[in-house]
Amino acid sequence: MIKELAKFWEREFNNFPPEAHNLKHEFKDRWIRFHSLPESKRYPENEQEYLEVLRRHNAVLQELVGKSNVLVVLPEYSESKEPTKPELTTIFPVTESWCSLEQHDEDDDYELYWHLHVSEVNFTGRELNSLFRLVANDEAGNIMIINPCKGVVFHPYDGGADIVLASTKQRDQLKEKHNEWLSAHPEGF
Fold first, then answer.
1. Among 187, 150, 180, CA closest to 28
2. Which DSSP state fits 61?
3. I need a surface site. Which of 22, 54, 73, 92 has the fewest CB within 10 A?
4. How far is it, in rounded angstroms, from Cα 155 to Cα 72?
5. Which residues contact 35 (CB under 8 A, 6 or more apart)?
6. Interatomic CA distance for residues 108 and 13, integer angstroms
7. Which residues pair with 180 in a beta bridge?
8. What is the pLDDT of residues 142-188, one digit of tens each?
9. What is the DSSP string of 89-125?
């Protein structure tokens, strides 16, 4: 699982650090953002809105990967160089360590690390709903759902999802299919 992910990342992202929130800047030609609620509303306030978030995430992910195994990348934030366990072990009890990224902040005296853990999930349409709810509530972040075989990186965030695909053509086709979920921002943010 980890070897496949590492080879995919190197091939598709040329060793760009696997920081979910930065992919949109570096790979704009293959990136698209969908908002998870009408009128770009950021946070769901009732069950109907949560169901809409889940519907949109699952619909796009199902279109992109079908019923297949996906790799869910879970970050662990730590001041230690050594990974321990990601916070989401209740949802993903089996994980493997992928890599660690050192984060620098010029204003801080300490080092911070992101340890990326990976769990393999057989996705058929609803398996990630608990995760999507946490993300929608801003209780989990910088998550990536990756299918190396299809060249898909799906990064849900509180307010929507950033997606990086294998080609501009695939991105444009997806964009056309769900244009009502796009941002009104001229750069797609």
1. 187
2. H
3. 22
4. 10
5. 41, 159, 160, 181, 182, 183
6. 29
7. none
8. 999 999 999 999 999 999 999 999 999 999 999 999 999 998 887 88
9. TTT----EEEEEEEE--TT-SS-EEEEEEEEEEEESS
